[in-house]
Amino acid sequence: RKAPTSKNGGTQMRCRGALCALAIVAALGGADASQAARDQKWLGKLSTKARNLRSALETAPRRDLSEHEAALSEEEVELLKEEAEEEIIMLKWATVIGIAALGATFILGFLAESIHLHWLPEAAIGVLVGMFASGLALMAHSDGLLEKEKFDFEFFMIWLLPPIIFEAGFNMNVQAFIANLCPTAFFAFIGTFASTFVVGGLVWWFGQMGLCYPLGMLAALTFGSLISATDPVTVLAVFQALGVKIDLFSMVFGESVLNDAVAIVLSRTLLSFNNPENPVDAEHILGAGKLFLIIFVGSLLIGAVGGILSSLTFKLLDLRHHDEMLYMEAALSFVFPWCAYFVAEASELSGIVSIMSCGMVMATYTRPNFSPRAVRLTARAYKVVALIAETFVFVYLGMATITFPIFTYTVWHFFFWATLACFVGRLHIYIGSFLTNCFRDATSKPPPISPAYSFVMWFSGLRGGVAFALASVSYVAGDFPSTCGGFDGDDERKQESPFCSDNEHNDSLAMMQATMLIACFTIFVFGGAITTICIYFDVLEPKKGAESTARSKMLSAMHQQKTSTQLMVDDGHNWLLKMLTNEQAYEKSDELRFDDDEEKGDEEVVVAEVEAELGKNAFTELKSEIMKPRNFEKGATASEMAANPDTLHAALGSPALVRTATKDAKIDVLRTRLPNLSTKDLEKLLEGASGDVDLAVKNAKAPINTPPALL
Questions:
Q1: Are 248 and 457 in contact (CB under 8 A)?
Q2: Please, is 312 exposed, middle or buried when counting C-beta atoms within 10 Å of its C-beta (0-12, 13-18, 19+)?
Q3: What are residue 613's phi and psi, to 5 degrees?
Q4: How wide is the angle at C-alpha 435 spanned by C-alphas 432 and 436, nearest 5°?
Q5: How far apart are CA 319 and CA 327, in angstroms?
Q6: Is the Cβ–Cβ distance between 245 and 228 less than 8 Å?
Q7: How far is CA 600 from CA 21, 129, 376, 607, 612, in A?
Q8: Which whole-number Å values give the CA distances from 253 to 67, 241, 639, in the listed order?
């Protein structure tokens, strides 16, 4: 388009350029207190109209800015563009620092593990690395970089927490979770409610007694709800590494998954009373309880529907018989949980509850519709994403200790008494254990909860990312701006209290500081001591001897598949499984989590694929015969056993079954050597080579002679 020649035309072009440049500034976020000095440099050089335009771009949508489109000088346009470019550069550098800190945490965590430095868990290393990264920016007086490293609630809730929660549900041992559902539900629901009021009540009382900073009653209850969000990522990682007993693991794991969701919804419900139009009376309390149930149940249903839709989709597509679609099969599984998450968020419900529910339903009903290789790929892919997210959460926490005013007028007395209140609030573990044992005896399965189990569960209540995220968003929003809210209306006590001398302090800041300090304390102290605690209380599964020969590996794989077909419930309750999958019975697993056994190799995958191809009845016959000692050759692998016609024929006495098993094994060999060909193409090659694998490979790689007439 030809450049305008009139003065008005030139002015319009300059305004549009300034608007485009400043839109980037608005997208990156408004000016904060930490940026005040740098902002003054720019604002001092801008005209009043330019300042109005800049301020409006930071606070209003572009469609409302027509009144600010005024003529700007060339110098002002350049200054605004330069500021926008600096913002983008700071964002990129903050991203580089965050990724580098993540890598440093992995490396240092591995080195600490290799020298058996159990008292310094990887989560604590992540916090230290994050503090170091932001500390460097602080010493360099880079306010722009510190601003980009600040803990952001939306980033945490959309990009970090959902993959952690989904992977927890997707790779959870659902059978063990259901077996311990009653105590787990008690700890997560009733326990979190009880902890909220115990911690909140004690913190409020301590403040009224003059022992610490006095919070208002609603602020204290809100603090009790958010600090009740346990985040035992460190503990669970240690549990998996040590191999704790499955009942203990399932209860701690289940409580941590459900507890985060309950705490998020409960804190949101309590904040609804932080409004003069919602007084605390019986009507509004019942309304808040109704809101909690609507949010939680509605979110569960959305997640369950997403999981059921995924199960039906994979059942109808039948991708498990299309090996060439392996990666698309795994990628498609990503769609349903994140759709469920954003549908719940768009409906003003809880996306965290929804994605957790979706993960558990997909683990039960979608996974049986996966191919054996897709089962392993999805479990490990989601685990990798969750590991990255949960590690960065601790790096992010470390950065937040510097980017937020955690150590400015720190409420140390409040931190001490709040920590004590958290210890008391966790005593609901013993109450739930006692009530559970009233319905269990020595012969029941699962067995009664022992005192050792109860103490380890009490000890496992770390605080972390979820608690601080809720506290930080309350601080940024200024939900409780009063100084010493517990003494509102009593100016004399405020003046006499040593905790109320600083007018810059407020209840929201005190809550955030205490939450961060409690999180760091539990991560370093409790997370560092959990290994010693587990060993001392003897809550570990007995170690199994190493199996080095191919026969022992084959026996282990066969035994695992044999026991995995046991029913979790009676046949009469399997109608949902039969409707959503091609299975007839729920699988039963003795592993802590679905992906717990990292020693499985390709041989077990071959066994699973042969089972899928032959069907359960034929494969059961194959297993029972191959497992007999007379049918094993010393040093033979599972693939060699399946591909040896003489051995199979001697074992089965069925030429048809031998041909089927041998063909499947040869196809597997061809697939590794010719990965770009589909299963049908491999079958044609094998048939053309009369079953000779080497000849089939040679024929596939031979150049095609095209007739001259076709050239």
A1: yes
A2: middle
A3: -80, -40
A4: 85
A5: 11
A6: no
A7: 54, 34, 10, 11, 18
A8: 56, 14, 36
Q: Which own/partner contact pairs does 104-109 have at CB distance under 8 Å and 24+ positions apart?
A: 104/129, 105/129, 105/391, 105/394, 105/395, 106/391
Alpha-helical (H) ranges within 209-232 are 217-227
CA geometry: angle 336, 337, 343, nearest 5 deg: 90
Bigger pLDDT: 611 or 461? 461
CA pair distance 346, 360, nearest whole angstrom: 22
DSSP alpha helix (H) spans, 29-59: 36-43, 48-59
pLDDT in tens, 402-431: 999 999 888 999 999 999 999 999 999 999
Interatomic CA distance for residues 309 and 391, integer angstroms: 31
DSSP sequence for 374-429: HHHHHHHHHHHHHHHHHHHHHHHHHHHHHHS-TTSS--HHHHHHHHHHHHHHTTHH
The vertex-588 CA angle with 583 and 589, nearest 5°, equals 130
pTM listed for this prediction: 0.73
Which amino acid appears at position 212 of this protein?
C
Residue 387's identity, in one-letter code, is L
Length of the chain: 711
Evaluate if residue 692 carries a pLDDT over 60.
yes
CA gyration radius, the chain:
31
The span from the CA of 348 to the CA of 343, in Å, is 9
Q: In 3-state terms, what secondary structure has residue 359?
A: helix
Assign 621 a pLDDT band (cuts: 50, 70, 90): low
CA distance 678 to 325: 9
